Amino acid sequence: MKELTFLFSSSIVANHPQLEKQFGNIYPKHLEHRYSYCAGNKTKQYPLGLYDCNENKTPELIRLLKTLSIYVPCKDREVVEPVFFGGDRLTDERVQTAQKAMANAETQLQRLQGFVSKIEDFHRLMNFLEAIHKLTYSTKSAVDRGTVYYYRNLLNMRNVKGEVYNAYRAYKMLYYVILDAICLLLFLHHMGVSDIEQEIDLPTNFATTSDQEKIDYIDSVSENILRKYFFDDTDDVFQNLRNIVCNPEHPENYWTSTLQDGRFKCHHCDKSYAHVLSLKAHEEKIHDVQIAKPSKKQKDKTQDQMHDYLLMLFKLVILHKNLDTSVDMGDGERAVRSAKYELPIYHITNKVKYAIGSIHLTSLTSGILCENQKERLVANRFVNLQGGKNNNVSLDEYLEMLNRDSKIACSGHKTKESILAHSKEYPHLINLVGHFDSITDIKNRKGFHHIPSYKEDVLKVLKDLQGANMLTHTPKREFTCQDLSFDRTPFQNAFVGLSTFIHRHKPNQPFIRLGDSHV
Q1: Helices and strands (H, E) in the chain, number of each type
Q2: Where is the C2H2-type domain (predicted)?
Q3: Which end of the chain is more exposed for a tag (fewer CB within 10 A), N or C?
Q4: Separation of alpha carbons 271 and 263, rounded Å
Q5: What's the pLDDT tens digit per position in 90-141?
Q6: In the chain, where are the structural domains located?
Q7: DSSP labels, 148-201
């Protein structure tokens, strides 16, 4: 609630003229967290250079990991403490496959257990937005007022096209414009105001109260709005999902509830099986057990699709922004905690790889790693190139930037041999090229780049949302396009198959975290 309240308050303060005047100079730009004291420190870089490796080929990846083992702390040829090896979900999986291939070697170092693979946050952000895109975006919805694609056309954002991974920042900007407009819509509705130019009634003696009391006031308003529209007047938006996943008596958990010592016991006799499918075949044949599959949710003929779509979009995009801002602010705890909220969305959109990645990340920080390793995994997720508490970037995003800039600044090296030989120089050359003006003092710095018309776009979407009367529940109001999701509570209906999926992919060690084929 604290993080979402901060995001909601920041949004309305930045986009409402009266609130910007009252709170713009006092509302914090940084949400304090455990690592705030060091979040603004510039990162020291020690380039290790490039390595020639095709990670699709396990022998080449094994050779690379053996080469990089010189950076693993060892004593008497045994690993003192493993180091983290980051990448996207495919790299994460391939490292574990390489470890499995070397599982019978004699020493930890030979078994490649000097490395713990992990997924990085930029690829998580991109895949989370792809999952949201699957639920909320369709080019067939151009005539449907209130949809993301409708506002893409209304705002003339022609750079929003194709796959999300090819235009991530453009898609993100579109979704954030709509999110800020929804936040303003909810705020104005809560305050009983119909127009953004209409003055908000603030508490008596508001001008004489302290800055902290003013901040507490706007946060309390935001919290009340979130409790109604995000949490649906409950304390836990995941309560229904958690009750099902954690309940061994629920039909969803029937086949995995008797797992003991790696074997599945029959519910009716003493037999046990190594594979859950064998147990299922036994009980169906011998004991005539039939577990009915959950029926699909029947379509509500009185559903207001526009209203439910708006609230679903609000919930999903503010969760994405929560992860995004946690990266910017260097808040590793919030970034890791976000994986729990991503998991059901990945599950219902069939993004299997990143659903597994969410399970692994949550497991690594919930008991598999020792406290010291867990601390490093949580805290060391970002780099800061310029200093400042809100200027952090994820490790894999910086690598993408470095890769892009290397191709421009170091284009003189054409052959593989010359590129590898000079690769340690590339980060320094990129830094030199990027700051040439300030280093040589030839001309003044260019200042900061501001996104043109962002506030105007937010107000344009807000005006259209108000014109469509989106917050008023109107039964039987439908979109022309039926390819979108209209489930205002997407988490509650993500339980089908989720419990078994978690059982199959929940690891019990930091290495070789591959799925259990028996489940």
Answers
A1: 21, 9
A2: 264-287
A3: N
A4: 10
A5: 888 899 999 899 888 888 888 888 889 998 999 999 999 999 999 999 999 8
A6: 255-290
A7: HHHHHHHTT-TT--S-GGGSHHHHHHHHHHHHHHHHHHHHHHHHT-S-TTSPP-
